[in-house]
Structures are given as structure tokens and as C-alpha cells.
Design goal:
By secondary structure, the chain is an all-alpha fold. The protein has one domain. 46% of the residues lie in helices and 0% in strands.
């Protein structure tokens, strides 16, 4: 990552990375971070055990990659996401 992110953005990226239905492409669209950069951020910002738990959970999860999803899944945010502050995508 070339630029430092504000703490609010880091918190939101971590939250989006933990969400099952939010693909890495959505994080890239909103924050400009590719999957590899999200993994680096998660490794840097989380405790080791939490990071390992997250990686184990995300490994092989089709919903984290738009290209691997079923065609019937057309959205990447949950219904409750509109209430989350600092979410640039839901405000479009």
C-alpha cells in the first residue's frame, strides 16, 4: 500500500473482509485495495490468531470472489449494510 489509510477506512475494510457475502472486488472498488493488499492489511492489523482464523474461514469461500459466485447472487452487500456508517458504496 502506498498511502496510509485513516483508521475509519481500516476498520471498514476489516469489517468487509470478515463478511461472507462481500467479495474482494467490492473492497477494491471502494478502497482501491486488491486481495493481496487486503490480506497484508489484515495480517498487520489483527492479532496473529485472529488473522489465522480469518484466513482459514476465507480459504476456498466462493462468495469472496465475484467470478466464483453463482449467477443468482447479484449483490454484495447485506440488507443491514445501509445502516453502517462510512460505507461509500451504499451512499451511491
Amino acid at each position: 500500500m502506498t498511502t496510509a489509510l485513516p483508521p475509519e477506512d481500516i476498520d471498514r475494510i476489516i469489517q468487509m473482509a470478515w463478511e461472507d457475502r462481500t467479495p474482494f472486488e467490492a473492497i477494491e472498488a471502494q478502497f482501491g485495495l486488491r486481495e493481496k493488499e487486503v490480506i497484508e492489511l489484515m495480517r498487520r492489523e489483527m492479532k496473529r490468531s485472529s488473522f489465522e482464523m480469518w484466513r482459514k474461514r476465507m480459504h476456498g469461500r466462493d462468495t469472496k470472489h465475484r467470478a466464483l459466485r453463482e449467477a443468482s447472487v447479484t449483490r454484495f452487500k447485506c440488507n443491514r449494510q445501509r445502516g453502517i456508517t462510512l460505507n461509500k458504496i451504499s451512499k451511491r
